[in-house]
Design brief:
Layout: H1 14-24, H2 35-45, E1 52-55, H3 62-68, E2 75-79, H4 82-92, E3 99-103, E4 116-122, H5 124-128, H6 134-150, E5 151-161, H7 165-177, E6 181-186, E7 201-206, E8 219-222, E9 230-232, H8 235-257, E10 264-269, E11 276-284, E12 296-300, H9 309-312, H10 314-324, E13 328-334, H11 343-355, E14 370-371, E15 380-388, E16 392-400, E17 406-412, E18 419-424, H12 460-467, E19 483-488, H13 494-502, E20 506-512, H14 515-524, E21 533-537, H15 540-550, E22 555-560, E23 571-573, H16 581-590, E24 591-603, H17 606-619, E25 622-627, E26 633-639, H18 648-662, H19 675-680, E27 683-684
Parallel strand pairs: 1-2, 1-4, 2-3, 4-5, 6-8, 12-13, 12-14, 19-20, 19-22, 20-21, 22-24
Antiparallel strand pairs: 5-7, 6-7, 8-9, 10-11, 11-13, 15-16, 16-17, 17-18, 23-24, 24-26, 25-26, 25-27
GO cellular component, one term: cytoplasm
GO molecular function, one term: methyltransferase activity
Organism: Ardeotis kori
Length: about 675
C-alpha cells in the first residue's frame, strides 16, 4: 500500500516517483501491458531507422525489448526520477550502446527542434493528466507543446493509455486542432485481466504542417480485431466509441468472474457500416447443475422469430435457457439489414467473441455448442422498405415460422422488435436467392397477387378483441346481425378485414392517420375497401370528436388498436391523449347504449396503467379486462351501461354461440381460434 499515491495528483510529482522507485527496487514496473501485447501496434509506426524518444520511461523493459527485437536501436529514454535513471543506466551498461537514459522533465526538454521521428509515452500522459484543474491542463499543454517541438513533420506521438474520457478528449482536441491526424488503436488483450480490467489503447498522433483555415479533422479508431481504421466525425464520437469498448471489457470481466443476476444485452456491429449485426443476451440458469458438457452454449435465433415470446422477452429467454439445460446460454438475434451465409459462417464469425462471455469455471479447451431451432438460421425476405413521414422507416417482410408456415409482417424500425401487423401466407414465400423472372424497376419487388389467409388472426390481442363482440346487446350475438363498427388504427388491416368478412352485415369504418399504412395494407396484406368497409385518413382524436358533435350513439362497437409514436412514454398503445377523460367521454357518446368499447392497452408503467384504468372506470360503469398471456397487451372491454354485466358462464355460452355462427360450411376457420377460450380469463374491474 505504501507504493500507492495519497491522491491522483501525486502521479505528476517527481518526489512521488523518486520514492516509488526507491521502494520498488529493481523489479520492472509495466504500465498497461507488456511488450508482446503492444508490439503489433508499435511495429506499424516505428521503423528500425527512426530516432525514438521515450518519455517517462520508469524501469519498464519496453525500450530494452524494442532494442533486442531490432524494432529500433536509436532510443533516448527520459524520466524525472534520478533513482530510476541511475538504476536503468546500471542495468543496461554496455549491453545496448545505442540506447541512453537521461534525467529530464518532459515539460522542459533540452533536445533541439524536430530531433525525433517518434515520441513514445507509456502511461505518462495518464499520470500527468489526473484531473481537469486549470493548473493540470496548463501542465499538459506544456507537455504537448514540447512533444510537438521535438518531433519532425511526419513524426508520430505514440501514447499508451487507459483512455479515460478526459484524457482522450484532451489529447484528441489538442492535436487535431494543430492539424495532426489522430488514430486510436485498441491493444489486443493477452487474456490476463488480473492487473487491468479495462482495455489498453494507443493514440497515434501523426504530425502535419498546420494548414491555415478550417481544414477537416481526421479522426480514426482501430478496434483490436481489425487493422482497417474506421473514420469518425467528431471528438465526441471517438470518445463514445472508446467508452463502448471499455464497457464491453468491463462486462466481460464481470461475466468471467461471477454469474449474472440479470440478463445482459449487447450489440455486435458490422465492421464496415457500424450497424448492429448481432444482438446478444446472456442468461444464467442457477438451477442447472454444471457438468463438463452443460456449462455454456450459444443459441442462434432463426431470422424472423426474434419477436416471439420465447426469444424476444426476458421471461421467455429465461425459460429457454432453463429448458436447454445449460448454466449459461447466449442467445443471438440476427438483424434484417445484414446478410448471413449460414450457420457455419455465423459460428466462425462469432466464436472468438462469444468466448469472451464464457462463464466462470468453463473447462479449458471446452468445445462450446452452437444450437438453434430446426438446425438452420431461418428465412427472412424483405418485400418492401420505405419511410413514412409519421411512422418513420418501416419494412414489410416474409418470414418462416415454426413449422412450414410463412408469415408477412409489418415492422416499424424505430421499434424493430415489435411486430406491428402480421398475416399468414397461404403459400410458402420464395426462398432468398430464388431466380427472379423480371428485373426490379423500383426500390422494392413488385407486388404479386396477395396470398393472405384472411381467416387467420396472427395476433392474440386481435382474437381477444373480436371475442369481445360477444358483449354486444341482444339475446343472440350472431354475425348476421347488422353492426356498425369503428376501428381506430389500420396497420396491415387484419382486424377490420376479419370483422368485415365474418360479420356479413357489419359496416366497418377505419380511421388511420398515416396514409402510407393504407397503401401498405392494400398492396401487401390483401386489404380492400368496399360498400361495407371505408377508410378515413384522419387523426382519430379529431374524427371521434367530430362524430360526437354530429352523430352520437351510432356505433355498436368502437375498437382502438393504435400505437404511440412517442417511445419515451411508458405506454406504447394507445397514445396518452386517447385515454384522457374528455376524449373517453366522446367515445362513450358515439356508442349505442348497449355497445362496447374495446381498447388494446400496452403499458409497462404500473402507475400510468392504474391511472388509465381509474379514468376508464370513471367514464364507463362496466369494465372487463383480458390479459394476453406472455405479452404486455391487456384488452379492455368497456360498456356505457352497468345493466349489460354478464357472468363468466354466460360469456362462455355467448362466445360458443358466436363461434358456431362464424364457422359456416365452406368458410375457412382457424381451428386454434376458440372464442370461449379468449373470454375465460376475463375479469370485471
Amino acid at each position: 500500500m505504501a507504493l500507492l499515491p495519497r491522491s491522483p495528483g501525486e502521479f505528476g510529482s517527481a518526489r512521488y516517483w523518486e520514492r516509488f522507485f526507491r521502494q520498488r527496487g529493481r523489479r520492472p514496473f509495466e504500465w498497461y501491458g507488456a511488450f508482446p501485447e503492444l508490439c503489433p501496434v508499435l511495429h506499424r509506426y516505428i521503423r528500425s531507422r527512426d530516432k525514438v524518444l521515450v518519455v517517462g520511461c520508469g524501469n519498464s523493459e519496453l525500450s530494452e525489448q524494442m532494442y533486442d527485437m531490432r524494432m529500433c536501436e536509436d532510443i533516448v529514454n527520459i524520466d524525472i526520477s534520478d533513482a530510476v535513471i541511475r538504476q536503468m543506466q546500471e542495468r543496461n551498461g554496455n549491453k545496448r550502446p545505442k540506447m541512453s537514459y537521461v534525467l529530464m522533465d518532459v515539460l522542459q526538454m533540452d533536445f533541439p527542434d524536430a530531433h525525433f521521428q517518434v515520441v513514445l509515452d507509456k502511461g505518462t500522459l495518464d499520470a500527468v493528466l489526473t484531473d481537469e484543474e486549470e493548473a493540470t491542463l496548463a501542465k499538459v499543454d506544456k507537455m504537448f507543446a514540447e512533444i510537438s517541438r521535438v518531433l519532425q513533420v511526419g513524426g508520430r506521438y505514440l501514447c499508451v493509455s487507459l483512455a479515460q474520457a478526459h484524457v482522450l478528449k484532451k489529447a484528441v482536441e489538442y492535436f487535431s486542432q494543430e492539424g495532426w491526424v489522430v488514430r486510436v488503436h485498441q491493444v489486443a488483450s493477452s487474456g490476463d485481466k488480473q492487473q487491468f480490467v479495462l482495455p489498453v489503447f494507443v493514440y497515434v498522433m501523426t504530425k502535419f504542417r498546420k494548414i491555415p483555415g478550417s481544414a477537416p479533422r481526421i479522426l480514426e479508431i482501430c478496434p483490436e480485431e481489425q487493422d482497417k481504421p474506421m473514420r469518425v466525425e467528431s471528438t465526441e464520437r471517438l470518445v463514445a466509441a472508446v467508452k463502448d469498448r471499455q464497457h464491453y471489457a468491463l462486462l466481460c470481466s464481470q461475466l468471467s468472474k461471477s454469474p449474472c443476476g440479470e440478463q445482459v444485452s449487447l450489440d455486435l456491429c458490422d465492421r464496415e457500416t457500424g450497424r448492429p449485426r448481432y444482438t446478444l443476451h446472456v442468461i444464467d440458469s442457477p438451477s442447472v447443475k454444471p457438468s463438463r458438457d452443460n456449462h455454456f452454449a450459444i443459441f442462434i435465433i432463426p431470422q424472423g422469430r426474434e419477436t416471439e415470446w420465447l426469444f424476444g422477452t426476458e421471461e421467455g429467454r429465461r425459460q429457454l435457457a432453463t429448458s436447454a439445460g445449460f448454466g449459461r446460454l447466449v442467445t443471438v438475434a440476427l438483424h434484417r439489414e445484414q446478410h448471413y451465409e449460414g450457420m457455419a459462417s455465423i459460428q466462425a464469425e462469432l466464436s472468438g467473441k462469444v468466448m469472451e462471455l464464457a462463464p466462470p469455471g468453463l473447462p479449458a479447451r471446452q468445445q462450446v455448442p452452437f444450437v438453434s431451432v430446426g438446425g438452420g438460421i431461418g428465412v427472412r425476405t424483405v418485400r418492401h422498405r420505405d419511410t413514412s413521414a409519421l411512422s418513420g422507416e418501416y419494412v414489410v417482410e416474409d418470414v418462416k415460422g415454426d413449422g412450414t408456415c410463412y408469415f408477412r409482417r409489418l415492422i416499424f424500425l424505430r421499434n424493430r422488435n415489435v411486430v406491428q401487423s402480421e398475416a399468414r401466407l397461404l403459400a410458402p414465400a420464395p426462398l432468398p436467392g430464388e431466380k427472379k423472372r423480371r428485373k426490379e424497376k423500383k426500390k422494392s419487388s413488385p407486388a404479386e397477387p396477395p396470398a393472405i389467409d384472411k381467416s387467420y388472426l396472427c395476433c392474440e390481442h386481435h382474437k381477444a378483441m373480436v371475442a369481445g363482440l360477444c358483449l354486444l346487446g341482444g339475446p343472440d350475438p350472431l354475425p348476421g346481425t347488422p353492426l356498425v363498427v369503428l376501428v381506430v388504427g389500420l396497420g396491415g388491416g387484419s382486424l377490420p378485414l376479419f370483422v368485415h368478412d365474418y360479420f356479413s352485415q357489419a359496416h366497418v369504418a377505419v380511421v388511420e392517420i398515416d396514409p402510407s399504412m393504407l397503401d401498405v395494407a392494400t398492396r401487401w396484406f390483401g386489404f380492400s375497401q368496399g360498400n361495407r368497409m371505408q377508410v378515413h385518413i384522419s387523426d382519430g382524436l379529431d374524427y371521434v370528436a367530430k362524430l360526437a358533435a354530429e352523430a352520437p350513439a351510432q356505433y355498436d362497437a368502437v375498437m382502438f388498436d393504435v400505437d404511440s409514436k412517442d417511445l419515451t412514454v411508458g405506454m406504447s398503445c394507445p397514445p396518452p391523449a386517447f385515454v384522457e377523460k374528455p376524449f373517453l367521454q366522446k367515445v362513450k357518446t358515439i356508442l349505442k347504449p348497449e355497445g362496447v368499447f374495446v381498447l388494446n392497452l400496452v403499458c409497462r408503467d404500473a402507475r400510468l396503467k392504474e391511472s388509465v384504468l381509474a379514468t376508464l372506470r370513471e367514464v364507463f360503469p362496466l369494465l372487463y379486462a383480458r390479459r394476453i398471456e406472455g405479452e404486455v397487451n391487456e384488452i379492455l372491454f368497456c360498456q356505457p351501461s352497468p345493466s349489460g354485466q354478464r357472468d363468466p358462464t354466460e360469456l362462455g355460452a355467448r362466445a360458443q354461440a358466436l363461434e358456431g355462427a362464424l364457422r359456416q360450411p365452406g368458410r375457412p376457420w382457424d381451428s386454434s381460434y376458440v372464442l370461449a377460450d379468449m373470454l375465460q380469463a376475463v375479469k370485471i374491474l
